[in-house]
C-alpha cells in the first residue's frame, strides 16, 4: 500500500463521491477509480459498496478509514516534532474558541506572547464548531463551554476544567437594583433589558434560566456588539446579564456588577485538545501566559488543572 493510495481512499471515504473526491485530489476520476481498485486488490477485500452511482464504506472500509486517521495524525505529529527542533523561530500557534467572550479572552492576552515570540504566526479561530477543527488538526487546542463539545461523543478529546463562570447583572452603578441585598432573576427581567441575540451562548443560558422561572424574555435591544451593550447600560437605557469574563474585560467607573440569585446562571469553561496531539514548544510557551492573564482577571484555575496545563 502506498501513502498516496491511502490518501485517495481517505478523501473518497469522506466525500463518498468519485467525481468530487477526484476534483479535490486534482486527479481524474478514472485514475481515482483505478487506484481504489488496486488498493482493494492489495487488501484482498472490497472497501466500498457500489450501488449504482452511490457508494458506501464496507465494514473493512470503516476499519481502514479509522486506522488511516491514526496514520495521518502520526505523520502530522512527526512533522510538528521535527519542526519543533527550531524552537520558537517560526511555525504557528492555532487556537480555537467559541465566538464572543471566549474569543476575546484568548485574543486579548496574545500581545505579551507576540512580544516574546514575534516569529510565531498566531491565529485565533472563532468557531461555533470546535470539534471538527480539533479532529482535523487545524487547531492546537480550543477554549469552550463544557456542554458544547460533548455532542461529538468522541473519546479522543481531553478536557481540562479552567473555571466556573457566573452570569452577572450589570447596570449603572446608581441603578436601584444595585442597592438591594439580594437580586432575583424576576427583578432583573422586569427592567429594560439589553442582551445578545439568541444565537449567542450567553443569551441561550439566560433563556434557559428564564424558561425555568416561566418568565418571557423581552429585551428592548439585542446586539452582538458588547460595546453597544455597555453604552446602553452606561447611559441608563437598560441593564444586561453577561459573563463575569466580559465584565472584567470592559468594566468602568460608571457601571457595577452583582450576582443574581439563580442556580442556572453559571457555566464551566474548559480547554480541549486531542489525546494523540503532540504539543509543540509554541503551545507550551503560551500556557503560563494564559494562566497569568486569568489571574489578572481574578479567575483562579484549580490546582489539578494547573498541573495538567503544565504537562501539555
Sum up the structure in keywords:
312 residues, 46% helix, seven-stranded mixed β-sheet, single chain, alpha/beta
The overall pLDDT, averaged over residues, is 88
Q: Find the structural class using helix and strand composition.
A: alpha/beta
Low-confidence stretches are none
Percent strand: 15-25%
Task: Please describe what this structure looks like.
The protein is built from 14 helices and eleven strands. It is about 45% helix and about 20% strand. The strands form three sheets. Strands 3, 4, 5, 6, 9, 10 and 11 form a seven-stranded mixed β-sheet that branches. Helix 1 packs across helix 2 (about 20-25), helix 1 packs across helix 4 (about 60-85) and helix 2 (about 20-25) packs across helix 3. The protein has helices at about 5-15, 20-25, 30-45, 60-85, 100-105, 110-115, 130-135, 145-150, 185-190, 200-210, 225-235, 245-250, 280-295, 305-310, and strands spanning about 50, 55, 90-95, 120-125, 140-145, 155-170, 195, 220, 240-245, 255-260, 265-275. Helix 10 links the parallel strand 7 and strand 8. The model has no long low-confidence stretch (mean pLDDT about 90). By secondary structure, the protein is α/β, with parallel strands linked by helices.
Amino acid at each position: 500500500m502506498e501513502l498516496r493510495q491511502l490518501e485517495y481512499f481517505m478523501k473518497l471515504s469522506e466525500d463518498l463521491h468519485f467525481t468530487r473526491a477526484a476534483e479535490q485530489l486534482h486527479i481524474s476520476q478514472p485514475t481515482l477509480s483505478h487506484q481504489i481498485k488496486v488498493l482493494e486488490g492489495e487488501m484482498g477485500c472490497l472497501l466500498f459498496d457500489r450501488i449504482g452511482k452511490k457508494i458506501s464504506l464496507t465494514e473493512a472500509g470503516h476499519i481502514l478509514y479509522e486506522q488511516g486517521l491514526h496514520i495521518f495524525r502520526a505523520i502530522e505529529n512527526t512533522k510538528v516534532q521535527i519542526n519543533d527542533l527550531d524552537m520558537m523561530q517560526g511555525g504557528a500557534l492555532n487556537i480555537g474558541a467559541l465566538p464572543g467572550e471566549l474569543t476575546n479572552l484568548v485574543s486579548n492576552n496574545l500581545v505579551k506572547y507576540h512580544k516574546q515570540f514575534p516569529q510565531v504566526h498566531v491565529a485565533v479561530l472563532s468557531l461555533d464548531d470546535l470539534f471538527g477543527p480539533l479532529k482535523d488538526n487545524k487547531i492546537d487546542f480550543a477554549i469552550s463551554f463544557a456542554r458544547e463539545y460533548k455532542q461529538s461523543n468522541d473519546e479522543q478529546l481531553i478536557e481540562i476544567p479552567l473555571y466556573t463562570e457566573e452570569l452577572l447583572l450589570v447596570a449603572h452603578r446608581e441603578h436601584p437594583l444595585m442597592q438591594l441585598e439580594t437580586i432575583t432573576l424576576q427583578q432583573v427581567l422586569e427592567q429594560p433589558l439589553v442582551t445578545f441575540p439568541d444565537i449567542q451562548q450567553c443569551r441561550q443560558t439566560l433563556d434557559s434560566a428564564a424558561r425555568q422561572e416561566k418568565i418571557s424574555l423581552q429585551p428592548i435591544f439585542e446586539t452582538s456588539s458588547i460595546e453597544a451593550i455597555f453604552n446602553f447600560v452606561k447611559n441608563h437605557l437598560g441593564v444586561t446579564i453577561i459573563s463575569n469574563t466580559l465584565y472584567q474585560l470592559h468594566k468602568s467607573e460608571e457601571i457595577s456588577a452583582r450576582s443574581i440569585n439563580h442556580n442556572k446562571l453559571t457555566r464551566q469553561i474548559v480547554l480541549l485538545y486531542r489525546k494523540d496531539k503532540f504539543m509543540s514548544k509554541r503551545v507550551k510557551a503560551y500556557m503560563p501566559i494564559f494562566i497569568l492573564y486569568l489571574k489578572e482577571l481574578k479567575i483562579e484555575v484549580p490546582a489539578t488543572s494547573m498541573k495538567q496545563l503544565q504537562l501539555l
